[in-house]
Amino acid sequence: MSEPTTAADWAPTLRAGAWFAALPADLADHLLAHARVLALPAGTRLFARGDAPDGLYAVVRGVVRIGAVGEGARESLLAMLEPPQWFGEIALFDGAPRTHDAWAESDCTLLRVAQDDLARLLAARPQHWQSFGRLLTNKLRLTFAAVEELALLPPTPRLARRLAAMAGGYGAWEGRSKRVLEVSQEQLGQMLALSRQTVNQALKELEAAGAIRRGRATIEIVDPGRLLAVR
Question: Between the CA of residue 97 and those of 8, 20, 27, 229, what are the distances in Å?
Fold first, then answer.
């Protein structure tokens, strides 16, 4: 079976996400009608920190890595985005340059709604700002939680909460969760500002608690309740 070729073909994938599923019908239809399909090979950079904003994106196939490279080529990894997560909305509000880099972690298919088209839509129908505001504030809540966990929690429960968030698509998925996460210990360390050795020890503790099962660059969530109960 061939891959869908138009944005409308990807509608079922998008509707599996909580944000898109809750949109007013006219806004959802507009996004589908004006989105363009973009194929991105693994290892390709979509945009870089400081680039001018070019629109709103949705991941419909593959994984997109959001992060930044600092001094000494050290990478800070913010998130690994999977279908049907949307991103790029910050610049919709302020028109400022991109805050992070976005890379295709695997072969990806994205939908892009151009910045100019969104500006025209919102000028004509300002009531839709609330929907985009909800997309932004959902991520802001996750960011506040991550900052609090960084300040208050030791490595093992902090890692447990990040795995739980990833399994739930960072709140983007509608009524489902992912059992097997494809993520390396190095990537987890970059997300949580932990060394690989610390991540490895924390994973051992979570496995001993019966919450997860480790594989080769994968982590299986065995018991979500035990994962969130780790203190």
Answer: 29, 25, 25, 39
